[in-house]
Amino acid sequence: MRAKITYFVLAAVLVVYFVLVGSRGVLLIEQGTAVTVAFGAAVLILPFIGLWFLWHTTRFARRAGILARELEAEGGLPVDELRRTPGGRIDRDSADEVFARRQAETEEAPGDWRTWFRLAVAYHDARDTPRARKAMQHAIALHDKKPVRS
């Protein structure tokens, strides 16, 4: 719950920032000179890119959360069986062992979104965020019965 609150507070701060930046872009355009209009247009692009990124990130997190709740209801969420260092970090060898099992599960049932979800968690635990995100996107596409992009 704490992570959700932090996410929404940061998202709200970003939206306020986008509004402020956008208003500066409008003010520059209103000056009417070629240079200020060009700068104003460039400044206005930044909030749109930021809003697009924020929208996609929020949508991804929401959809992944739906899958997590569904998998939890089925009793299929991966159990945290990872060893930890004295500082609380995940032991790399432990993460690699769990990853190998999750990868084998996914290879046995490549059309099951559940195995891809668990593989995404294993990638995340192994600190491979880009592959974790791709695996979760794959799980979402399979769950929603949409074409899967490679």
Structure description:
By secondary structure, the protein is mainly α. It folds into two domains: 2-64; 92-143, no CATH class. It has helices at residues 2-31, 34-74, 92-108, 113-125, 129-143. It is elongated, with a radius of gyration of 21 Å.
Query: In this structure, how is the largest beta sheet organized?
Result: none
What global shape is seen?
A: elongated
Instruction: Kindly give the count of domains.
Output: 2
**Average pLDDT score:** 91
Low-confidence stretches: none
Strand/helix succession: HHHHH
Quote the distance from N terminus to C terminus.
Answer: 33 Å
Quaternary organisation of the protein chains: single chain
Kindly state the percentage of residues in helix: over 70%
What radius of gyration results from the CA coordinates?
21 Å
Number of helices: 5
Structural class: mainly alpha
Number of strand segments: 0
Strand content: under 5%
Protein name: Membrane protein
Transmembrane segments: 7-29, 35-55
Keywords: Membrane, Transmembrane, Transmembrane helix
Q: Briefly, what is this?
A:
The protein has helices at 2-31, 34-74, 92-108, 113-125, 129-143. With 150 residues, it is mainly α.
Q: Can you give keywords for this protein?
A:
membrane; single chain; transmembrane helix; mainly alpha; 150 residues; transmembrane; 2 domains; elongated; Membrane protein; 0% strand; 5 helices
List the helices and strands and how they pair.
Blueprint lengths: L1 H30 L2 H41 L17 H17 L4 H13 L3 H15 L7
Protein name: Membrane protein
Keywords: Membrane, Transmembrane, Transmembrane helix
